[in-house]
UniProtKB/TrEMBL annotation:
One of its GO terms (molecular function) is O-phospho-L-serine:2-oxoglutarate aminotransferase activity. It catalyses: O-phospho-L-serine + 2-oxoglutarate = 3-phosphooxypyruvate + L-glutamate. Pfam families: Aminotran_5 (PF00266). This is Phosphoserine aminotransferase. Residues 7-357 form the Aminotransferase class V domain. It comes from Paratrimastix pyriformis.
Length: 370
């Protein structure tokens, strides 16, 4: 019998492709004839070395990553990176960093960075309640800043930067939190970035891992008080195995990366993401104002779509979430800080799930008219 699976719209940890879960299940007790689960393997064993090497190789293939970038698999999630970014980029610098604030996650990154450096908020969309992205021409970048940080997709507010990297002056180190749109689209100009990082638990695998991609020439700017586990140069030298890494999480990411390659890589992920989001945005547009999206059309996310019922009708929204849950459509409540509803469509989300959501929304509107 087919396994019981709901339509899961969680913003993270998020659903994984059924095929990936089934592969993990099939080799759970005995990985490739080793007589043990990957979970039970020494990270120094030949078997595990082959797993982590293949995981990195497939990630590099997906991203078309130039050889002068290091891939680090680190613990501490994206929150860890909020601290490890300044700690690894400040030595010998002006001690200043520019941040572009487009929502909760970039605000959180600023808060953490302030412990280590002088933060300049070079642009903020706070005045529009984070429903827009500040025009590049309005950014007030600091000459000589150690780096510029932005968040390519704000998971809570549902605003996403275009696929192309924002233009910054030559020599400026561009740092991006890609946690919630990493691996959902190609990064055509990847060499414009100094550092890209992402928590794995949305588009890349289970929680417990931060993927940090850093240009080699930036290694060596680490302040002396940086904890060793977040010292990128040390971790790069040790192939992310300075200490015991989250071995099983890395293995699961590896299965997911191989799946993405089989599907056609990031161009295919992007085509799927566009098709999913278009279906929901169109359904909302056709609802005659029953459902509304607060975000400006030009920067609407393909990954996280916040929306409201009748402006801000919390009563109907509560009812919607409860009835959806009963219909097998789960985790549609908006983040507690903004309210409303939110559907998150990561790589593992199928068109079938989005079709089920849209059908439910039309039915709900018909049964609960204005
Ligand atoms: N940045 C973004 C864009 C996120 O969506 C999240 C989590 O949802 C984080 C950072 C924090 O990630 P973590 O929970 O891995 O620390």
């Amino acid at each position: 019998a087919a396994p019981h699976r709901v339509h899961n719209f969680s913003a993270g940890p998020a659903s994984l492709p059924l095929e990936v879960l089934q592969q993990a299940q099939a080799e759970f007790l005995d990985w490739h004839g080793t007589g043990m689960s990957v979970m039970e393997m020494s990270h120094r064993s030949k078997a595990y070395e082959s797993i982590i090497a293949k995981t990195q190789q497939d990630l590099r293939a997906l991203l078309n990553l130039p050889a002068n970038y290091k891939v680090l698999f680190l613990q501490g999630g994206a929150y860890g990176a909020f601290a490890s970014i300044p700690m690894n980029l400040l030595k010998g610098s002006s001690g200043k960093a520019d941040y572009i604030v487009t929502g909760t996650w970039s605000q959180t990154a600023v808060k953490e960075a302030k412990k280590y450096c002088q933060v300049n908020v070079a642009a903020t969309a706070e005045a529009t309640k984070f429903t827009t992205i500040p025009e590049r021409s309005t950014w007030n970048l600091t000459p000589g800043a150690a780096y510029v940080h932005f968040t390519s997709n704000e998971t809570i507010h549902g605003v996403e930067f275009p696929m192309e990297a924002p233009e910054v002056p030559e020599g400026t180190v561009l740092v991006c939190d890609m946690s919630s749109d990493f691996l959902s689209r190609p990064i055509p100009d990847i060499n414009k970035y100094g550092v890209i990082y992402a928590g794995a638990q949305k588009n890349a695998g289970p929680a417990g891992l931060a993927i940090v991609i850093v240009r080699e020439d930036l290694l060596g700017r680490t302040i002396d008080t940086c904890p060793q586990i977040w010292n990128w140069a040390d971790q790069a030298k040790n192939d992310s195995m300075l200490n015991t890494p989250p071995t099983y999480t890395i293995y699961m990411c590896g299965l997911y990366f191989a799946w993405m390659l089989r599907q056609g890589g990031l161009a295919a992920m992007q085509a799927n993401a566009r098709a999913r989001a278009t279906l929901l945005y169109d359904c909302i547009a056709q609802s005659n104002g029953y459902y509304t999206v607060p975000v400006a059309p030009a920067c609407r996310s393909l990954m996280n779509i916040p929306y409201r019922i009748l402006g801000t009708c919390a009563e109907l929204e509560d009812k919607f979430v409860k009835e959806a849950e009963k219909a097998g459509l789960t985790t549609l409540k908006g983040h507690r800080s903004v309210g409303g509803l939110r559907a998150s469509f990561y790589n593992a989300c199928t068109m079938e799930s989005v079709q089920a959501l849209v059908a439910f929304m039309r039915d709900f509107q018909a049964k609960n008219p204005t």
